[in-house]
Amino acid sequence: MGPIVTVMILASTYALLAAGIVIVYKASRVINFAHGEIAVVGGYLFYSIGMFAPGSLWLAIGGTMVFAIVTGVAIYLVLMRRLIGEPFYVAILVTVGIAILFKAAIIIVWRAERVTINVADQIVAILPGGAKFSTVDLATIMAAVLFYIGLFAFFRFTQLGLQFRGMAENPLLASQRRVSVNAIMALAWSIAVFAACLSGVLYGGRALLSPGSVAIGLSGLTAALVGGLDSLRGAALGAIVVALAEYSTIRLIDPVLSEAVPFILLLTVMNVRPWGLFGTREELDRV
Amino acid sequence: MSIMYFKRMTTALAVTAVVLGAAVTPANAAEDYTIGYITDLSGPLAGSYTPTWEGFELYMKMVNDRGGINGHKVDLKLDDDGLKVDRAVTLAKKQASRDNVIGIFGLSLSSTQGPVLAEMRNIGVPVVTTFSGILDSLPPAKPYSYSTGVVFEVAGEVIGELIPEIVKSGKVVAVTIDTVGGRAAIAHNKLVVEPKGYSWGEVIFPVRTADFVPHAQAIIAQNPDVVVGHYGSSQNLGVISALRKEGYTGPYVIAVYGVTEDTVKLAADKSGSGENLYTVNRYVSATAADNAAVQEVAAAAKKYGTSKEFSTMHVTGWVLGKFAEEALKICGWPCDREKLNSVIETLKVDVGELTGGPIEMSKDDHYGPSYWQLSKWDHANSNLVPIGGWLRKDKLEYSMQ
Amino acid sequence: MTRPGPFLRTSYLESNEVLPRPYHKVLVIIIVLMLLLPPMLMSNFYVHLLNTVLLAVIAVVGLNLLTGYCGQISLGHAAFLAIGAFTTVILTRMEVPFVVVIPAAGMVGAALGLAVGLPSLRFRGIYLAISTLAMHYAVVYVVTTYQSSIGSSASGGVYLTDPSFFGYELSDDRAWYYFLLVAAALTVIFVINLSRSRVGRAWMAIRDRDIAAAALGINVLHFKLLAFVTSSTLASIAGSLAAYYQNVVTSEAYTLELAVAYLAMIIVGGIGSVLGAIFGAIFITLLPYGVDFLFEFAPNSWRFGGRTFGVQQGMIGVFIILFLLFEPKGLVEMWRRIETYFERWPFRYRPLEQTRR
Q1: C133 touching A (Cβ < 8 Å)
Q2: Which of C60, C76, C59, C77 is nearest to C68 (CA)?
C-alpha cells in the first residue's frame, strides 16, 4: 500500500492517542498511563454493541461516545479530583491502576477473545501494487485530521477553549476568574477518553483487538513525549516520527526490533531534547 | 461516624480477615480419581486452550455419567496459569502436594512447559501435554513427560513434507513470531523444504504485534509462491487479512498450533475471500460432517454445552480425555502416580477416525508416531476439506540440539 | 509498666532504638521462631509460596530504598531482575560456581543501575520514570535476543541446574526456604541499617526537597547514584536467586506488569518503610493465590473465560487505587494504628516520679 499511505494511517492512530495524552497533561499535569487500555476497551465496546444490534452503525457509534464521555467524567470526578495536591507520582500510579483494571475488564467481560470489527470494509481505491485502500483506512486518516482541526478551532475560537488554556497555564488564577476548574478538567478527560476510543475503534476496524493491543498506548505516549507533552502540534508531529520509525525498522532493518523502536526513540529524545520538539522548556524543571 | 472510626473499623476487619485466613482445603473425595489440568485460560493463547480443556472436560463428563472408570468417578482439578511460568510451576506444585493429583494434563505450547515438566519429574507426577514445545517427550524421552499433541519441530517438518501437495516448486516464505518455538519450527521447516528444491524466505516479527500491514508488505516483497504461518490464531487472523489486503492472493498454510475453525472463517471473512487457505492438523476438523467419531464429540458438546464454538481443539481435548480414560482403566483402583506412569509408558490408544492411527507410547518415545493431514478451506460450505490421506510421521528427521 | 509514656526518651541511644518498645523485642523473637517452623509443618506447596515471598522481599526492599527513601520513581525493576537472571545464565554456562555468581550478578546489576541512574541527574519526577521505562524495554530486548541466540530448547527458557552451596546442593524447597530466609534477613538488616545511617538521612533529604538538600551540602549526584546502584544490586541478586530457584529463565517473565507489581508492593505496603515493603511483598505475592483460593468455592465453569486471571489482575489495580485514595501510607499505617490504639490505652502509663504529687 505504498509506504507513505501505511505510515500515514499508522501515524493517524498514534496521533489520536497522543492528542488525548496531551490534553490531559495540559489540563492537569498528569500523564495518563491508561490510554492504550481505554482505547482498546472502547474498541471492544463498539464491537459488542455491533454484535448486539448488527447493522446499526450509528447505535454503536453513539453508544461508544456515551461511554467515552461518561468514563472520562467518572475518572476525573471519582479518582483524579481527590488527588489534587498529592505528589505527582500518586496520580500517575492511579492511572497505572486504572490501566490494570481496564485490562482486567477486557479479560473478564470479553473473555480475552481476539475480535475484529468488520465494518466499513468497502474498498475505496486500489493502489499500485495491488493493495486495497478501504473505507476504514480513509476514516482513520480523516478522523485524525478532523479531530486535530476541531481541537485547534476549539482552543482558538471558543470561550470554553480559552478558559481551558487559561486553566492550563495557571489554575489558581483561572479559578478566581470564574472558570470552573472541575468542569474543565472533566471536559479534558472526556475529550481524551473520546479520542482514545475513536482510535481504538478505528484500530479494531483495521487490525485485531486483543488484550495485547494495549501496547499502542505506549507508542502513543512516545509520540506525545517526542512532540512535547503539552503541545498538540508536537503530538501530531511526534506521531508521524514514531510511525515512520516503526515502519522503516520493520521494512528495512529487522521486524523484531520494531517493538523496541518507540523506546529507543524515547531514550534518544530524553537525552537530546527531553521536553520534546515543541514542549515548553520549563516543564523539565517544574516537576 | 467520623473518618477515624471508618479507618479503625477497616483496620479491625483487615486484622480479623488475616487471622481467620487459615487455609481451609476443600475436601478431596477419597473415592475418585483426582487428576489435574493446568492450561492458559485467559492469557494470549486462551482462544486455543479453552476449547482444548472443554473437549477434555466433555469426555470426562461423559465418562462420569456412564458411571466412571472402574466404578470410580473422575475428579478434575482445573487451574489457569495465564501463560506465566511461575504461576504454572506454583499451580503444578499445588496440585501435586495439596490436591494430591495422580497425573497432570494439558499445559500449553509455551515456556511454561519446561519448568513444570522438570518439577513434576522431581516429584514423580506423570504429565501428558496436548501441545508440546519442547523435546522432552521425543526420544530419548525423559521420564514422566508425555505428549499427545503437537511438537513444534515435528510440525515444522510435517508441513515441509506436505507443501508439495500445494505447490510443486517455487519459493516458500515462512512467517513466525519471535519465540524460540517459532524459530525452531521454521528451522525444521527449512531443513525439509530446501532439499526438495524450493527456495526459502522467512519473516519473523515481535510477539505483541497487532498491526500486521507492514509485515505483510515485507512478506510480499519476497515474492512467495506459498506462505506458511507458524503461530497461533490471532496472528493467523491478522496476517491473513493483511496479506489479502495488500494484494497477495496465493496459497497460505495455517500451521497446526491450535487454530480453530471459527478463526479460519473469521480470517476468510475479513479478507474478503476464503480462497487458497490451507491447514495442517493432527486431529480431524470439527467440520468433517461424515466422520462418525467427530459427530460423537459434537453430540457431547451439544449435550453438555460449550462456551466456545465446537472446533478441532475440542477434538484434541477429547482425544486426551480418551487417552486418560484408557490409562486409568488399565491402572485400576487404587491408582497412584508410579503405577499410572508405568501404565502410560506403554499405552496404546485407538481413537478411531479422529486421527490417522492410534497413539502409541513406548519407553523411549513418549510421543509416538503421529498422523497429519492437509486440508483446504471451503468458504462456501464453511468447512475444511481434507486433501490426500494421513501422513504418518514416525520421528524427527533432523536434530538441532 | 514503669515507663512514663511511649514518647519520653532520656538518651540518644534510646531514641535510636530499632525496637523501642519491650513488646517489640518479644514479637521479633516470636516471629523468628515462627519463621523457622513452616518447612516442618506445611506441605511443599506452601513452602514454595513462602519462598516466592522471600524472593520478592529481597527485591522489594531494594526498590524501597530507591523509591521510598530517595524518592526516585523507577519503572525499571523488572529489568534489574532480568539482568540478574541472565547474568546467572551466562556465568553458569561458563561453569562458574554459585557462590561467585551471586556477587557477580550483583555487580552487573550495580553497573546497570549506574547507567540508569545517570539520567536522574538531569530529570526529575515523571521524566525519570519515563527514562527508566525506556531502559526497561531496552534491557528486555537485549535479553530476549540473547535467549534466542543461544538456541535454548524450543519455547522453553534456559535451564539451570541446582546450585551447590559450599558443597550442599540446594534442590529441595525446604532447603531453599532456610537459605532464602537467611538471605532475606541479611538484606533486611542491611537495608534497615542503611536507612538509619548518614546515607539514609541524605536520601530522605533528597526525597523531600532535593534543592534544599543540595543547599545543605549533600552531594545530590552522589547519593542519587548510590540509591540507584544499591537498589539495582539487590534486585539483581534477587533475580539471580530466583533463577536458581526456578531452574529456568525466560525473558517473557520480565514484563512491565512485573515492574508495576513491585511498585504496587511499595504502595500497598507503605512508601518509605522497610516493614511496609515486607507487608507489601507478602500481600501482592499472595494475592493471586488468595483469589484462586476464593474461586475454588465457585463451580468450575466460573473459572475460565479468564475470570480467575482477570480478577487477579484487576485486584492489583483495585488495591493500588484504593490504597492511594484512602490509605496512602499503606498497610504499615494500619499496623501502626493498631499499635497506637494499644499504646494510648487509658491509664496505661504512670506519671514520672518527679511529677507525682
Answers
A1: yes
A2: C60
